[in-house]
């Protein structure tokens, strides 16, 4: 074996351990017996600890030093892998193994505590756990820090390499202002769409049949995935042949599972189409949370926001639901789907107000890590911001600060990815339209050119390219929020009957 | 850390790895995406290889030698754990690694060859593979052998410690004769029960509701388990708080899932009630295949064979199934459930004829390992025995010698466990009846005293006691087939209206 082969074999062991951790995580969220949680935490923390140990131990250090001194022994491919592994090594190596294991155990238990706090709608039940998670993150930040400007930049970078609070502050101001202005126009001149049919009762089994058909058509491959039920939808990939998605079914609102599933399928399609050559290396899997969200949101917002797409899919839904939609024509249906109004729950927000939900979280996370705030005050801060940006106020913590799973998992700096995903998706859509006629394809029976364009420009590369490079290569320019604002304006002015 | 604590921590690592392998196995049988199989094989073999390595490597050898020379450093508990670990170490370590790997490869390939032979209904396609597996077992037996009387005793002992051909020859002769005589009486004087309603169509969702209610009442704890769908039902325990069961649903025969689920729940209840102190040691989990089967069969044959039980549960089934069972009274229903007749397929056999299927396999396995027979002759030997004991003859190898998966996996000496389970279950039932009135409890609304008796006498001990000791302590005597024969006679004479 050459030294490079040895290195790749070693990385494969880490990948296999992470796959086992992933399966454990999927299982713990989809159907693990309730009382199994403590045992599961032991197993997960043992396996992830082992993966972490292998990622940071003397052997790994040996590979790092060796290839630093003998770069000529690496093939081009090996060099790419080495560079990514080195990045992760530098990230991981800063934290002592026992602290990391402690952290894994903490976040593993935090999930069920969060679930209980949600049931009681009481942030107080979760506060102490959240405090511990934040405290450990604050302990780790100085260890991770390279040349980032602020503490929160350190966390941001873990999800979106190259992203800074400086960029985000500017971009988010532009987005906030743009959305506010669209919302103002709508409030003044818009005609409210009819939406009663959105709340028609449709049995879960029928909804499942519908969305399964739709996401298959979009390119989600069920021979490499599956669809399960969870409170909080997610996609989890064990490998490129096993990228699982979940959704939540609401009988009186088919749009929850419909858009939720279309969204998660976008994540799954990304993973299912990464080049096989990256298997068992740190280059397998999506390159950043923002790019990942660009794929899920391309599905949800661009495809799911297309009138041509719904002109094709609404008749299918109609055919599965008896007389549920009797008398509703295509335009009425589409307008109803794309209603926009203030709401309290992020994952139920429409595509226009959604970025505001993210901006609120971004501002709060920045406060937690760049200022010293009392965690006691978080629900009030949260509720005040909702009142300011969206004009509504949560009545309890379930509608407010307890709604998202992210913090229970220790994911701070993650939320901005969703808004980045919106902007990337719109920017990719603009670039895609230079090559293929997206609306025409969405009005046809074969959506494959869209999936193929995304595979060619995004999916296939896995993590071998950085977000900014991918976006630059695919669209010819850096992140630009204008495409999102243009897209939203056109879409919502159409729905609300506003002529410019 | 004391040396004992070190040893226990090391064993815990092995247990956690096995737990991950177990989860992977469960997932691959319940819903893994089809194309994920090859990736999954990599992960499973990596993890199980690591567990095996830890069980046999220098570190483990070090613990074995150390405690052999310093038994005084072990607590009573540590001594129990050490002895069990030593047994397993000796078993694993007797075979040279390369031969063991060869054997794993052979049995792994054998499975698909067996599947192909089944499809062709042709034993000849499997014969050569079977020959190699038997040959390797014959190579290993002298390495495993301690003081067992015959080669086949060595294999028997791996599944049921302390069991011998000497005991089984005697016991099985008695069982064979007893069952033959009951069958003769039934054939001469019995009144055939009505069975048409067994094949009424009942939707899976309704069956699921029914059996879920029933096994909960029996004591299967869903907060420590779950029920999934598979072609081949099984119970798989990750730990005592996560003992999962599966079943197969047949819409036109509710008895398949009903008795199947009740059976697997018995396995699950065993694992769910092992004493917490054995966690993460080789003493966690059931002590032998025979004792495990005694728990599943207690549920299936004793509880599921009780008229009082069905007098209570049939009304529930009726209430869930509209007019499906209109005009069927309790006695008719019960009699239909307990019909007995000759059949060719073991897993479809009724409780009276089942032990004959096992005795046939036992006799053949003994011939293979204790005599020199031509494997060429196996199908004829098999078919002749079915004709002799059950009065029917397989028309092809799929109905005959190819029906069971065990030999393809190299499991020789396993089959007798099923019959032991029958005998143990009846013997435990007899002993239980000295303390509590089982039929009265099964006619009541609270079955918990039964589960509690089994936990007190069997479950709690995990693998800390050998099968013969458990049976002796729980029933006051060694294995005695008379209880099974008495039970069967009484039950079937009742069903077939025979007065003695």
UniProtKB/TrEMBL annotation, chains A, B:
Catalytic residues of the enzyme: 264
Sites where the protein binds Zn(2+): 263, 267, 293
Catalytic activity entry: Release of a C-terminal amino acid with broad specificity, except for -Pro
GO molecular-function terms, A-Z: metal ion binding; metallocarboxypeptidase activity
Top-level taxonomic group: Bacteria
Cofactor: Zn(2+)
Cofactor, how bound (note): Binds 1 zinc ion per subunit.
The keyword Cell membrane is annotated on this UniProt entry: no
Name by which UniProt lists this protein: Metal-dependent carboxypeptidase
Organism annotation: Vagococcus carniphilus
Lineage: Bacteria, Bacillati, Bacillota, Bacilli, Lactobacillales
């Amino acid at each position: 074996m050459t030294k490079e082969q040895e290195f790749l074999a070693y990385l494969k062991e880490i990948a296999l351990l992470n796959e086992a951790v992933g399966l454990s995580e999927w299982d713990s969220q989809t159907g693990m017996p309730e009382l199994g949680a403590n045992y599961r935490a032991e197993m997960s923390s043992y396996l992830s600890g082992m993966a972490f140990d292998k990622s940071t131990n003397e052997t790994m250090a040996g590979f790092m030093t060796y290839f630093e001194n003998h770069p000529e022994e690496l093939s081009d491919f090996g060099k790419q892998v080495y560079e990514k592994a080195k990045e992760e090594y530098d990230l991981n190596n800063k934290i002592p193994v026992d602290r990391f294991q402690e952290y894994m155990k903490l976040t593993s238990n935090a999930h069920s505590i969060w679930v209980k706090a949600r049931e009681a709608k009481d942030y107080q039940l979760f506060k102490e756990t959240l405090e511990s998670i934040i405290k450990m993150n604050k302990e780790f930040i100085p260890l991770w820090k390279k040349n980032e400007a602020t503490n929160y930049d350190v966390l941001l970078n873990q999800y979106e390499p190259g992203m800074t609070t400086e960029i985000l502050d500017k971009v988010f101001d532009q987005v906030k202002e743009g959305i506010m202005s669209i919302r103002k126009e709508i409030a003044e001149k818009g005609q409210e769409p009819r939406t009663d049919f959105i709340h028609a009762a449709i049995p879960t089994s029928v909804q499942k049949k519908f969305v399964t058909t739709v996401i298959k058509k979009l390119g989600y491959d069920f021979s490499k995935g599956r669809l399960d039920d969870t409170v909080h939808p997610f996609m989890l990939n064990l490998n490129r042949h096993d990228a699982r998605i979940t959704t939540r079914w609401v009988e009186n609102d088919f749009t929850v599972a419909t858009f939720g599933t279309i969204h998660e399928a976008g994540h799954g399609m990304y993973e299912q189409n990464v080049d096989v050559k990256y298997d068992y290396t740190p280059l397998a899997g999506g390159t950043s949370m923002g790019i990942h969200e660009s794929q899920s949101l391309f599905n949800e917002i661009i495809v799911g926001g297309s009138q041509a797409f719904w002109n094709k899919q609404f008749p299918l839904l109609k055919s599965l639901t008896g007389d549920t939609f009797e008398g509703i024509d295509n335009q009425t249906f589409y307008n109803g789907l794309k209603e926009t109004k203030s709401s309290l729950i992020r994952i139920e927000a429409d595509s226009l107000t959604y970025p505001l939900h993210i901006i609120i979280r971004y501002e709060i996370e920045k406060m937690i890590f760049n200022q010293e705030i009392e965690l006691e005050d978080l629900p009030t801060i949260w509720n005040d911001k909702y009142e300011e940006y969206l004009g509504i106020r949560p009545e309890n913590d379930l509608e407010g600060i307890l709604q998202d799973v992210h913090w229970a998992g220790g994911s701070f700096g993650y939320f901005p990815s969703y808004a980045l995903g919106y902007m990337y998706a719109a920017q990719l859509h603009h670039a895609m339209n230079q090559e293929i006629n997206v609306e025409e394809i969405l009005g046809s029976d074969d959506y494959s050119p869209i999936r193929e364009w995304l595979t060619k420009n995004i999916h296939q590369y896995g993590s071998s390219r950085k977000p900014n490079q991918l976006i630059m290569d695919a669209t010819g320019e850096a992140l630009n929020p204008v495409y999102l604002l243009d897209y939203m304006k056109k879409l919502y002015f159409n729905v609300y009957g506003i002529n410019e």
